[in-house]
Design a protein that fits this description.
Blueprint: E1 3-7, H1 13-22, E2 23-26, H2 36-43, E3 48-51, H3 59-64, E4 70-73, H4 83-88, E5 92-94, H5 101-116, H6 119-127, E6 148-152, H7 156-169, E7 172-176, H8 183-189, E8 191-193, H9 196-202, E9 205-208, H10 222-227, E10 233-236, H11 245-253, E11 259-262, H12 273-277, E12 281-283, H13 292-312
Parallel strand pairs: 1-2, 1-3, 3-4, 4-5, 6-7, 6-9, 7-8, 9-10, 10-11, 11-12
Helix pairs in contact: 1-13, 5-7
Bound molecules: 2-keto-D-gluconic acid.
Length: about 325
């Protein structure tokens, strides 16, 4: 008998078709928004779920869904999973790393450039019909080339941004991470390890690429923003909650830092109202991995994890492999 799985959000029809070759699939191609209780109801009798990063999998859900064996996330981040609770319940968690690294690093760099060169502000000005004449300092921003790029969180995506900065734009790259990279990796990215304090004080542009956890909550708040250069830009492509968005809005308004680019927000898709009223911030709706080939590769990797595990006990990218034993 085929295993039963739930796909919780609309995804590529070809991925649903692939899954249907192996499983009895319940999908949500209408992309309805389910409450946590509805999600539990839909999961009854299912052995697997395909999640996209927004669905909370916690102890309460696991207790209510005793047949569940695997949650496959179509995202590299997995802060929607209570991994300890999943491991305790013997439920496998998988994520979707690697396939989105370069696309997400491209976007991080694009957001950095748009922020430093004030592209969104300038475009709004033009669209509003305010462009009447040239001025020597019209939307003058900060240089990227030759400046110091700081990276907080130096995993695969952080390294991709470092390579772009060092090799493409001649930037000096400094980083801070829970653990220092090995010498060969540092050399490949031309990146130097520094303390968080030095990173904040020295970076002309600071990009956040660290995972969200209780220990990274508000890693950038008022105190950290105050240590940054008044000419600095801050870019967050990691997770909402790593930055204290209210403190950031105040810092942008007071010119504690020059500008920010944000793809992720505390409590998204809601955005802190103060961020919507400051001009020196570029805001995008969590799209760093959004190219069609990359999103398809992410969806296929989540599907491969479901197929590999439920058919052969061999998931590709397990997060809590100890439940396999
Ligand atoms: C996802 C992401 O699109 O992979 C991640 O961790 O942040 C994005 O690529 C997002 O998580 C989907 O909810």
């Amino acid at each position: 008998m085929k295993a039963r799985i739930l796909v919780s959000r609309a995804v590529f029809p070809e991925v649903i078709a692939r899954l249907a070759q192996h499983f009895d699939v319940s999908s949500n191609q209408a992309d309805e928004a389910w409450t946590p209780l509805q999600l539990i109801q839909k999961l009854q009798g299912k052995q697997g779920i395909f999640t996209t990063g927004g669905e909370r999998i916690d102890a309460a859900l696991l207790a209510a869904c005793p047949e569940l064996k695997i949650c496959a996330n179509m995202a590299v981040g997995y802060n929607n999973f209570d991994l300890d609770a999943m491991t305790a319940a013997g439920v496998l968690a998988t994520n979707a790393p690697d396939v989105l690294t370069e696309t997400t690093a491209d976007f991080g760099f694009a957001l950095l450039m748009a922020t430093a060169r004030r592209m969104a502000e300038a475009e709004h000005f033009l669209r509003a019909g305010q462009w009447t004449r040239w001025r020597y300092d019209l939307f003058a921003g900060a240089d990227i080339h030759g400046s110091t790029l700081g990276i907080l969180g130096m995993g695969r995506i952080g390294q991709g941004i470092a390579r772009r900065g060092a090799h493409g734009f001649g930037m000096k790259v400094i980083y801070h991470n829970r653990s220092r990279l090995d010498a060969a990796t540092e050399l490949g990215c031309k990146a130097s390890y520094v303390s968080k304090e030095e990173l904040l004080k020295t970076a002309d542009h600071l990009v956040l690429v660290l995972p969200y956890s209780a220990s990274s909550h508000h890693a950038i708040g008022a105190a950290e923003l105050a240590q940054m250069k008044p000419t600095a830009t801050l870019v967050n492509i990691a997770r909402g909650g790593i930055v204290d968005d209210a403190a950031l809005a105040a810092a942008l308004r007071n010119k504690t830092i020059a500008a920010a680019g944000l793809d992720v927000f505390e409590g998204e898709p809601k955005v802190h109202p103060d961020l919507l009223t400051v001009p020196n911030v570029v805001l995008t709706p969590h799209i760093a991995s959004a190219t069609l080939p990359t999103r398809l590769a992410m969806a296929n990797l989540a599907a491969d994890n479901l197929i590999g595990f439920l058919l052969n006990n061999k998931p590709l990218t397990p997060l809590n492999a100890k439940v396999l034993i």
